[in-house]
Every structure is written in C-alpha cells, then in structure tokens.
Design a protein that fits this description.
The chain is an alpha/beta fold and 240 residues long. 43% of the residues lie in helices and 15% in strands.
Length: 240
C-alpha cells in the first residue's frame, strides 16, 4: 500500500499512555492517524505526536462527559484499551469493587462505543477494537471479577458488530495473553516471569508492539471482513 494506511483518520485510544495502549497509540500515529490518547492523570502526557485527554473511567459522570467530547470529535477509529483488575478469591470479592471493575472494563467501553457510532455512520466507515483478555475466554483462580468483565466485553462487541456492519463499521475484540510490560515486570519476580514464559508454547512473553501491529491491521483499511470476533494473541497458551 502506497502512503500511510490511516492518513486522514482520527483515532481515540483509551489507556494510551503506557503498556499496550501506548504501543497502539504509537502504531496508529505512525500509520498516519491523528491520535487522541487518554490517561487518568490531569497533568499526564500523551505519547509523542499524539493528543492527550484526562479521564477516570471509574467515574461514570467523567466517562459521560468524555463521551460527549468523543462524539464531537467523531473518530473513525476507537480502541478501548483502558482497564483495571484486582485478582482475589471469589469469597472475598466486594460488591463495590466488582462494580468498579465492570464500570471501567465494560460500562465505559459501551458508553464510548455508543458515542462514536453517529460519526462513524455519517462517514460510512468505522473500526472499533476493544482490548479484551485471554481471561475472558479461559479462567483461573482469582480471576472471576476481571474475567466476567472481559467476557462481557466480548459479548458486547459481538452484539454491536451485528448491528453496525451494514453501516461500514467493524467491531472486534483483541484478547492478549501475557505481555512484557513495565506493569508485568513490576508485579512479578524474575522467577515468576520465567514460569509464565514456560507456560507459553512460543516460549516468551509478547511485546506490546506485537499486539499493536494486529490492532492496527484490525483498525485499518485492509480489514474488510473481520467483525464480531474475539481474537486471542497468546502464543498458543489457551490452546494447550
């Protein structure tokens, strides 16, 4: 393809200041999109070459206010990447914490998708990529709250895709496995990282840029027929 595939497109990436979100913002920027990345800090900084918007998606009113701004921006591409997790035994799950995780991981993406649709329909073209997780497909102890939110996101996206495909809008989930980010390295010891790597058939953690490359394809003009899917990028982990 000659030129940059996303030249002239506007993109919003939530949680776009670190980890996977930052890599996605950079990749969409490099592919020619005008990118707005969000973070929770009022004094936060966008990835170089991107615009920045501060919003705490745990706050419903703040989410609705940002959605109004997003509707006015009328992005062609929306990547819902912002998310939170709190692993804990099922018997210890607090109702308020369960609701907070779902507000950030499921309710906020719904609100933003809804806000983005009029502009995408007017343009006759749109791409929505919701960042889910392997824990929305498989599970383990301590993941009930997070897994439920991501399984819900998968279902939300499938239902959305069915309604908007005729308008030129494709909606999908991308479900990463174990990713080599600063957060991962900060939470785990070297021995725990090595154990994770041994559990993955490819034998290593993924780099954020690998996830970003696939998201960019899903959000770009070469994707003309993939919609309603929750595609796992996990080095084969969930299959074995």
């Amino acid at each position: 393809m000659i030129g940059k595939p996303l030249e002239g497109r506007r993109a919003v990436v939530t949680g776009g200041t670190r980890g996977i979100g930052r890599a996605i913002a950079f990749r969409l920027r490099d592919d020619g999109a005008q990118v707005l990345a969000t973070g929770t800090r009022p004094d936060g900084a966008a990835p170089e070459g991107c615009d920045y918007g501060a919003v705490d998606f745990a706050d419903r009113a703040a989410t609705e206010a940002f959605a109004a701004k997003l509707a006015a921006l009328a992005p062609h591409i929306l990547v819902n990447n912002a998310g939170v997790t709190k692993p804990q035994p099922f018997a210890e799950i607090g109702t308020d914490e369960f609701a907070r995780v779902h507000q950030v991981n499921l309710v906020a993406p719904m609100i933003l998708c809804r806000a983005a649709l009029p502009g995408m329909r007017a343009a006759g073209w749109g791409r929505i990529v919701n960042i889910s997780s392997i824990w929305g497909t498989v599970s383990k102890t301590g993941r009930a709250t997070y897994g439920a939110s991501k399984a819900g996101l998968n279902g939300l996206t499938a239902g959305l895709a069915a309604e908007v495909a005729a308008d030129g809008i494709l909606a999908n989930c991308v479900s990463p496995g174990f990713i080599d980010t600063e957060m991962t390295r900060g939470m785990l010891t070297d021995a725990q990282v090595a154990a994770l790597e041994r559990s993955v058939p490819i034998g290593r953690l993924a780099q954020p840029e690998e996830i970003a490359a696939f998201v960019a394809w899903m959000a770009g003009p070469e994707n003309t027929y993939v919609s309603g899917q929750a595609i796992l990028i996990d080095g084969g982990f969930t299959m074995v």
